[in-house]
Amino acid sequence: MGAGVIVLGGLLIGAVGLLPMLAGTAAGRRLTESQINQRIPGSVSIDRLTTRWFGGQRLEGLTLRDPDGAEVLTLSSFEIADAGLWGVAWGERDLGKVRLLGLKLDLVKDAEGQTNLERALGGVGQGGSGEPKKTPGEPTPTPGGTGLGGLPVNLDLELSDLVVRYREPGKAPLGARLTAGRVTLADAEVRAQFDAQIKVGDDAGRVSGGVDSGPEALADPRWTGTVTAVDLPLAALDTWIGADGYLKAALGDVAGVTVALNGPRQ
After folding, report:
1. Which range of residues forms the domain containing residue 162?
2. 202 in a domain, yes or no?
3. What is the pTM of this model?
4. Residue 179 near residue 195 (C-beta atoms within 8 A)
């Protein structure tokens, strides 16, 4: 009897230990996709998934499609280099190095005002069918942590080759390509840098900048930053937002500006 329990316990521990490895198999990926696709009107496919109890996590070749099968979002890779599933499951918020590469989002708004992303995801994250059910009278959980709410306390997020396109009826398409970006969180300090190209129709410009809470964030909880725009296509933006020429009249067809930011950090 005792020996049987020991053997059974060993088998269960071994099975649990193998779960991350099984998730990376073809059958494991299909199961993951199935669990997601049961919750959304669209569909998700994953080329490769690597998970570990102690170590890094990596997802490659993610595609999100709308209910008609058209691509809405693709992602080359997402990697958490150091954090393991065990720590995350127990509320670990020190994620270390995180890399997101090759995100492409093609947003299209229809005449009724709904985007293809909304149609693909349905109510996920918006109180719809994708939300976990809440027991009546159950208190709403509040994010933990000091100063950063539910955000990771330590994070070094590297972003590369992110492309967003947006279209809606009767307007020129908008586009943005983040060629390089980085966000770092270290305890109560926040820093971010970015460099992006933007397009309004056929007119293009460039925006770069950064935000820094500074090392004195705890004593003086404020943030500062700068945003620099080069060859910003103001005439095209004026038409797009319906400013009736006021933006163009005030600043011209094209502008290069630097804006300093300074404000309280919540």
Report:
1. 20-121+150-170
2. no
3. 0.71
4. yes
